């Protein structure tokens, strides 16, 4: 595990936008293992809203890729790690933002995965605080495991759900284009 200051992360490792030059002190591992599946950092970026830094999202894959469509479609392991870096975000706001992301990702067609989306959204409605770390881990034989600060909260099955969830950040209509580009390693 590498411990770096935000400025070092910006310049040496993840090349985040200059507006993110705050003294966030994050531990971002180069690689992770879930269920004996090794994953490596693909890219990371800062989610901003109204000029405020909200969270850092890190995409982990079995091997690096900049092909968003292939990543979304693949029935392959991945992890999206989210570091909450703002006191402005609440569980309710985060849940609403995730729901908006699902609507965008599915072009408004949530019905086939409505119960899965509702299960994930429910995990975000709990109290949320600056410093929380979420892992959204997809394992093909299981589905998406949702962890908060290392504790598994939910298991949501299905490739279609994984595709919609990944599309929140990587689809042709992501929550933030700059964040998408950074997560794809650009």
Could you outline the blueprint of secondary structure elements for this entry?
Layout: E1 3-5, H1 6-14, E2 25-27, E3 31-34, E4 37-49, E5 52-61, H2 68-73, E6 78-84, H3 91-105, H4 114-124, E7 133-139, E8 143-148, E9 151-156, H5 159-170, H6 177-183
Antiparallel strand pairs: 1-2, 3-4, 4-5, 5-6, 6-7, 7-8, 8-9
Short structural summary:
By secondary structure, the protein is an alpha+beta fold.
Overall description:
The longest helix has 15 residues. The protein contains 6 helices and 9 strands, in the order E-H-E-E-E-E-H-E-H-H-E-E-E-H-H. The N terminus is likely disordered. About 35% of the residues are buried. The strands form 2 sheets. Strands 3-4-5-6-7-8-9 form a 7-stranded antiparallel beta sheet. The protein has a two-stranded antiparallel sheet with strand order 1-2. The chain has about 190 residues and is α+β, with helices and mostly antiparallel strands. Strand 4 and strand 5 form a beta hairpin.
Q: How many strand units? A: 9
Span from first to last CA? 23 Å
The helix/strand series, from N terminus to C terminus, equals EHEEEEHEHHEEEHH
Radius of gyration: 15 Å
Strand content range = 25-35%
Q: Quickly give the structural class.
A: alpha+beta
Helix content: 25-40%
Unreliable runs: 1-23
């Amino acid at each position: 595990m590498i411990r770096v200051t935000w400025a070092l992360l910006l310049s040496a490792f993840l090349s985040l936008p200059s507006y993110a030059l705050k003294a966030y002190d994050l531990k971002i591992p180069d690689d992770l293992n879930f269920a004996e599946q090794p994953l490596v950092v693909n890219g990371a970026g800062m989610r901003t809203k109204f000029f405020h830094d909200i969270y850092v999202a890190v995409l982990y894959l079995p091997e690096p890729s900049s092909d968003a469509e292939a990543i979304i479609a693949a029935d392959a392991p991945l992890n999206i790690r989210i570091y909450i870096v703002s006191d402005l975000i609440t569980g309710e706001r985060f849940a609403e933002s995730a729901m908006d992301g699902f609507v965008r990702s599915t072009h408004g067609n949530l019905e086939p995965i409505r119960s899965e989306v509702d299960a994930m959204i429910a995990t975000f409605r709990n109290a949320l605080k600056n410093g929380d770390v979420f892992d959204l881990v997809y394992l093909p034989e299981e589905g998406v495991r949702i962890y908060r600060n290392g504790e598994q909260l939910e298991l949501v099955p299905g490739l279609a759900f994984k595709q919609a969830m990944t599309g929140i950040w990587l689809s042709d209509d992501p929550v933030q284009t700059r964040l998408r580009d950074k997560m794809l390693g650009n």
